[in-house]
Write a structure and sequence with these properties.
By secondary structure, the chain is α+β, with helices and mostly antiparallel strands. It folds into two domains: 95 residues, P-loop containing nucleotide triphosphate hydrolases (Rossmann fold), CATH 3.40.50; 64 residues, no CATH class. Helix content is 28%, strand content 21%. Strands 2-1-3-4 form a four-stranded antiparallel beta sheet, covered by helices on one side. It binds adenosine-5'-diphosphate (ADP) and magnesium ion. The site of magnesium ion has 3 residues, from helix 1.
Length: 160
Amino acid sequence: MPMETATPQLVARDLFQSFRMGARRIEVLRGISIEIARNEAVFLSGASGAGKTTLLYTLAGLERPESGTVEFEGRRLYDGSSAAEARLRNEKMGFVFQGYFLLPELTALENVLLPGMIGRRAATDAAEASLAAVGLGDRMHHLPAELSGGDDERSGHHFR
Ligand SMILES: Nc1ncnc2c1ncn2[C@@H]1O[C@H](COP(=O)(O)OP(=O)(O)O)[C@@H](O)[C@H]1O
Ligand SMILES: [Mg+2]
């Protein structure tokens, strides 16, 4: 029996994005297509300004492309109601931003729990396990500003 080919979890087709800088127009994404399987890890590299962040925002439903499509688990992004898209992002998308955007008055654990609290499915055990997996098991109750260099918000800005 032939093995069934798994449908990719994420399919992007022919993405275009450009930004206007005064009179200049910078074409950042020029026909990017990509398919990513469930559980596949993808490493994206490129010079500063090459468009990595723009592509990731577009794939995660955070920034509508000028043209092209993004389908996540068979659902087309940028196509439905904003409430449905917000729910999809809340339930399915995780994003570690370059500048972190951690809420400074919440602990590391509370920051990790926040999306689940908004989605009414907060899972403390899973959040603790995630923090432990990245070596922050003993710092879960620290505020972001109390985390050591390399993992707080300020250090993120040195690596743009
Ligand atoms: N919101 C925006 N407005 C104007 N220009 C932008 C915007 N976002 C990104 N750019 C420009 O698009 C290009 C790609 O940026 P970016 O995706 O952040 O690159 P990378 O993450 O690879 O460093 C850069 O020239 C950047 O200045
Ligand atoms: Mg970037």
